[in-house]
Design a protein that fits this description.
The protein has helices at 13-24, 36-50, 67-77, 100-128, 149-169, 201-210, 225-233, 237-240; strands at residues 4-8, 28-33, 54-58, 81-86, 132-136, 175-181, 218-221. It is α/β, with parallel strands linked by helices. The protein has a seven-stranded parallel β-sheet with strand order 3-2-1-4-5-6-7, with helices on both faces.
């Protein structure tokens, strides 16, 4: 029986590409999101293309009270579960996010829901002393910028959470990898002003899977974003706060 990977937020462009990359190497898959019809289509396509087992189920990141039962159902369906990829997120309207009711949804989608389901995944893998957790965060979490500081704050919190989880699970042999993509050509970024060096979801998905054969715990994708964000993080605050970023 091939090892299975749970993809959370499986209908996003990056998640689809990541699922395809796992399927190409023979992994069974469990796809989860809020869109059952789209899940059905993606699962059928992956089965046909790669000949692997693909199951799917409904998952709502914001409905944290349902997460425990959801994970138990995944484990019952896929007892060979070996890894989890957290690929959901919500950019939202950053101008509207000045209203905290809007901002709260951004935070719930990108951090609270993620911390909820990942805590359960960690508790499952830790006593087994195996498995991996890959969390897709964002370069937006590296420094607060006026254009997306609510989204960036949520992703920054997720990155810090994953860092702590990595530290906690290291002794048990469970890998925790934080992925920080830059601009990716997805529905979430379509039409946004100021985009540059935009990567394809396929390239990002393939690199996400490839990180499992590397030793890095934090991976910027594409690689050059590590140096772009290093420069941005080191701009002195008196200058930075005057910049339109």
């Amino acid at each position: 029986m091939s090892e299975a990977v749970l993809i959370l937020g499986a209908t996003s462009a990056i998640a689809r590409a990541t699922a395809a990359a796992f399927a190409a190497r023979g992994n069974a898959l469990y796809l989860a999101s809020r869109d059952e019809e789209e899940l059905r289509r993606i699962a059928a396509d992956l089965r046909l293309r790669y000949g692997v087992e693909v199951r799917y189920g409904l998952f709502d990141a914001e409905a944290v009270e349902t997460h425990e039962m959801f994970l138990l159902s995944v484990i019952a369906t896929m007892p060979n579960l070996s890894g989890v990829v957290l690929a959901f997120g919500y950019l939202g309207d950053q101008q509207a996010a000045r209203d905290f009711k809007v901002g709260a949804k951004v935070i719930a989608s990108n951090f609270t829901g993620a911390a909820s389901i990942l805590s359960l995944c960690a508790n499952y893998f830790e006593p087994l002393k195996r498995g991996f957790i890959i969390g897709i965060s964002s370069v937006a979490g590296d420094r607060g910028r006026q254009s997306n500081y609510v989204y960036g704050a949520a992703k920054g919190a997720l990155s810090l959470y994953l860092q702590g989880l990595c530290n906690r699970l290291y002794a048990s042999g469970v890998r925790v990898i934080t992925i920080k993509p830059g601009f990716v050509d997805t529905a979430m970024t379509y039409g946004l002003p100021g985009l540059f060096l935009v990567a394809s979801p396929q390239a990002i998905g393939e690199r996400i899977v490839a990180t499992l054969s590397k030793s890095a715990d934090v991976v910027y994708l594409p690689w050059f974003w590590r140096y772009i964000m290093l420069i941005i993080k080191h701009i002195p605050e008196p200058i930075f706060k005057r910049m339109k970023l």
